[in-house]
Amino acid sequence: MAYFHYVLYLELAKGMDITMKRDFKRLFNMFFLIKKYWLSYGIATFGVASRNLFINLLNALLYSSIITIIQNYSNILLFKSISKFVFILIIFLISDSIFQFLQSITLKNITDYIRNKMFKSILYGKIENINKIGKHSELLFRINSDVDIAATIYGNDIIQPLLYLISGVGAIIVLIKVNYFLIFWALILSFIFLSINIFMGKIFRRIFILNQKNNSTLLMQFSEIFSNGFAIKSLNISNYLYNGFRIGLHKYDTINKQSAKVEATVTVVDTIQSIFKYTGTILLCIYLFSQNIIKLNEIILSTQMVGLIITMITSIGSSYLRLQQSLAGAERIFDVINLPTENYEVKIADIEFGCKDAIVFENLNVSYTKDNYVLKDFNSSIDNNKLTILSGCSGKGKSTLLKVIMGFCTYDEGNVKLWNIDLKKYSVKDLRNLISYIPQNNLIFEGSIKYNIALGTTDSTMEEIENAARMACIHDFIINLPDGYETQIFSQNVTLSGGQKQCIAIARGLLQDRPLLLFDEAFSAMGSGLATQIINNINNKTIVIVSHDTNILKLGKEICL
Fold first, then answer.
1. How far, in Å, CA of 448 to CA of 469, rounded?
2. What sequence ranges are listed for the domain ABC transmembrane type-1 (predicted)?
3. Angle at which helices 238-274 and 298-337 cross, to 10°
């Protein structure tokens, strides 16, 4: 069994490319990330970490007072000693409560700040980089679980070593007066134990990263199953999904067994450390006493002080063990925080909207994988202030073409001009100010209907909101609801059909009043008559619609891909 553990550790250690230097760099990054909280965090952490020193001082004061009272008993001395002790105790309890409260508030603010940074990075990050991290459930797992894990760096991972440091320095000062050899003994044991803990910490980190990845995979499977329950049952694929889930659980069980073996070994190592720390030190002190090097009453004192020194140094190792989990979470956090952001600077101020063609495609080539083109040598144009319908079979590049126009998808070769200006010269903010995009899967959020229509605009009047709703043919439905535009979606037992949700999303796009409207199957859940009426209500806009509806195809210029 011991040989098996040894082989396991060697095999895991072979694949470790995370050095202590990189660990400390990540640790530095974690603290640089919260520089706005340095003052409050520093005060709270130092105050909480110093409590062990104050407790020891209180104990020393208590024992000293008891000895003094026994030697020189008097009622006045007893009263003064009790009063002094109670006063200092009250001061300590009040200050300790304040520091604990400040630390709790600061740590909460820090975790909220990190989540806000991650959320902002996801909102403003480049789509292709976000997709490389994983699905929405993976991002959700990182924002929640990984932040909670990484936040322990700011808590016990720092406070405990600092607490041990304060106690250990005091122990060294005491042993200087007793015997220097005991300090060397404590340091030798400390660095042996520290090396062992660091080695075990690297193994813990590898296992924990594997566990986090497996947890994310299981969470994604849960999310997909819960989101698509009806489809799963109708397609009769429950057994297939359950078998896949069982495979994930088996991997989870294997990793947990590895972790349990490592934890069992750590327990054995801790036991050996305790034997050497206390029993070994007592035997050494007895030997020093027999050689008249130390006094009898210094044996227990020396044993306690050696223990404090060893704890001070080995806490670096034990903290390193805990730190591996926190750094694993931190690594996954910075994957999100460091996402490249889109360029939101305005590059083009003056655009000539009077040209014949709003968009021109010249020899456009787009591929997601090498030599697998979604669009190949595509040449066409979108008429300005007119309706153009993109048609064709699934997978022919209709949605890809919209992504190219919006700047979400880069193209390998060719040229795209938007109002006679090269598309690549536009910034993200330019394109966002010019384009309203209405997808098939509508974005409907918790809140009122008014809030959902006005989302994305800051100064829209009620009249403008109602006009947009009229153009989207949803106004009459809204005003017949009990609370009209203030009706709370989801929370007032209001059931919206797929077509009504699409109408609200269309009203939102119209309210933004941008010159280019892109509809990606945005009329799929409503009848052709209603879709035609909405399209006819839109004037003086360049409209591009992806649709397979034959009635919509008759309304404008068709480009078949």
1. 14
2. 54-325
3. 150
DSSP helix/strand/coil, 560:
strand
472 three-class SS: coil
| Count of beta carbons in the 10 Å neighbourhood of residue 313 | 19
First to last CA, the chain: 65
> Length of the chain, please?
561
What's the whole-model pTM score? 0.61
CB 221, CB 248: distance < 8 Å: yes
> Cα 504 vs. chain centroid, distance in angstroms?
32
Q: In the predicted model, what is the mean pLDDT of residues 95-120?
A: 86
Q: HSE of 417 in the Cβ direction (CA atoms, 13 Å)?
A: 18
Q: 252-267, pLDDT tens digit by residue?
A: 677 677 767 767 776 7
Cα 205 to Cα 20: distance, rounded to the nearest angstrom? 12
- Among 394, 390, 393, smallest CA distance to 405 is for 390
Please tell me the distance from the alpha carbon of residue 163 to that of residue 136, in angstroms, as a whole number.
Answer: 40
Q: Report the alpha-carbon distance of residue 313 to residue 177 in Å, rounded.
A: 20
Strands 357-369 and 435-438: what pairing?
unpaired
Q: Is 226 exposed, middle or buried (0-12, 13-18, 19+ CB in 10 A)?
A: exposed
Number of CB atoms found within 10 A of residue 323's CB:
25
List, for residues 137-189, the tens digit of each pLDDT value.
677 778 877 788 777 788 777 777 777 777 778 778 777 877 778 888 888 88
Count of helix runs (H) and strand runs (E) in the chain: 22, 11
**Cβ-based neighbour number of residue 57 at 10 Å:** 13
3-class secondary-structure state, position 338: coil
Residue 471 — very low, low, confident or very high, per pLDDT cuts 50/70/90?
Answer: very high
